Amino acid sequence: MFVKTSVFRLDKQAFKNKSFIFAGGKYKPVNYLFPKMQNKLFQFLLSILFSIVLFSCNKDDVIEQTAQKPEISLDSESGVYTVKAGKDLLLTPIVINDQNASYEWIMDDKVVGNEKSYRFNASAEGEYYLTFKVKTVSGEASIDIRVDVAKLTPPLISFAIPESGINVKANTEYIFQPDVQHAEEASYRWYIDGKSAGNDIRYTFNQSETKQYNLSLAVENQDGTDSVSIKVNVLQSLPIRIFFDKPSLFTQSNDRYVFEDKPIYLTPIIENMENPTFRWFVDGKEDNETSGTFRFRPPHSGTYEVTVKVNSSNNATVTKISRNILCTGNISGEATVRVICGGNEDSKLRPFTTGKKSFDRIYEYVPAPGQFINDTNLAGFPGFVSTLEQANDYAEKRLEENKFVSLGGFGGYIIVGFDHSIQVKNNSEGYDFSIGGNAYDKSSEPGIVWVMQDVNGNHLPDDTWYELKGSEYGKPETNQNYAVTYYRPRKAGMNAAWSDNAGNKGQVDYLENYHKQPTYYPTWVNPEQDSYTLRGTCLKARNKLVGNTWENNNYDWGYADNFGSNRLSDEKNPNADNINLYFRISDAVNPDKTPANLKYFDFIKVQTGVNAKSGWTGELSTEVCSFSDM
Predict the structure, then answer these.
(1) 10 Å Cβ neighbour count for 246?
(2) Are residues 199 and 87 in the same domain?
(3) Positions of the chain with pLDDT under 70
């Protein structure tokens, strides 16, 4: 109860001692009207009458009971709700004192609902803000609500095989097990030529009939379904493949060039052949060499046809087909390369004349998939890159500003050239050129360094690469003939799958919390194909988890983007700035590990030298920032 003071005010003490009655627009003592009535009974009865009059004053709005304003609360203490894109979220605040109330839901300054509950649904991920208002005759209340909309995470299936399909042998068991992102509480359904074949994550394939099969898989979780189909060609034997690899992915010609007084080393790539033996021929005449690498030193200038014939025998497959026909079990194939010999090393030297010590041109920027590839934010990509020219232009602008260019996972490379030949300095320091990187202590991502002379004089990097040996060169754990094939992801946001020539498979992880570009796969590399292969030297990884921190431990010397002794500085580089590492031409070696004894070179290639990833920080990827002639 309360008294409206605009009508009257009573003295507390007077109210205790006297009885009052309303008369003439004022409250007056009772004996004003009834001077002869002073007995206690009369006062008691009059007090009852006064109470009745007092409590009936509500008719005139003089004294009334207080009405309560509405109050709102949520079942979320933070006022934040989470829902998947395209899914319904029913918002029902708790409201008291809302008799005969009206309601409003407001979003983006627009009324979107007038009920006590609101069914929220948004197709795009992001943060959404709503205000809920309640109005009654006694007042109003409001509360703010935030809804975080996360994107749907249906399963994403990837196989480390080309989409064009694979070849397998008849009557041979193969286990298919996909890599699946968002596989929590997922179900699996396998089909062979449309017929149900299994419900496990793994499927065992073994067919005797030689034909093409359609193997398909559907994976479903609460957010959706993904499916893939694989063409599986069942053959009696797998086709062998023998070829001489080109110096780089974009090189057009596979001819080899050599100076008159130098040897050239030829090594074929062989697929699907076990325990091969070799025979080498020069212009049809057999040579004495029987190893997998031919050290060929032309006797004079000219053009030579060098052929390797490869054979593999398997006694277990010897079969007598009839009285007149015997299958020997021998498998053979061959490959030929043209070797052009002419000139001498001194004749192609381009002296230093312009005064420009840094690189002059980017010839090929071919990274492996990685978290910085196509990243417009941290890595500065200009957006969608569809050609090698656009990729080279991007890398060149970054290096001119001493900013990093990432080479992605294992094998990713960059080739640069100079407007002059870089020669052996023979100075007291013994170093001839430098490569900038962003390594710091326990954050090394080593890059293998290669150099090339412009033997044919066409100003293109299409001759022979020589590896610069580092501290790990020749160790048993270093693989000098490693190859990884990367497969184009089928959809945005997918891991990039890979397989190697040692029978392993894996993926470059898609790190959505840090790099949100649609794909980490270089879109300009083999755009007409669904995979590409990178070859080179692979070092044993030295990364490890220490507490909650991943450490990429250093190598002693000889690698780009490595905190090694060839940085010639005590600088710790805690901010991962551009820091130079220095290299010697005298460290160039031939494939047989003998010194190449180069007097100069014209091109440099740096290639990511490990195949590893460090948990949530992602793949190890060499970064380069500069190239300079000392």
Answers:
(1) 13
(2) no
(3) 1-66, 316, 427-428
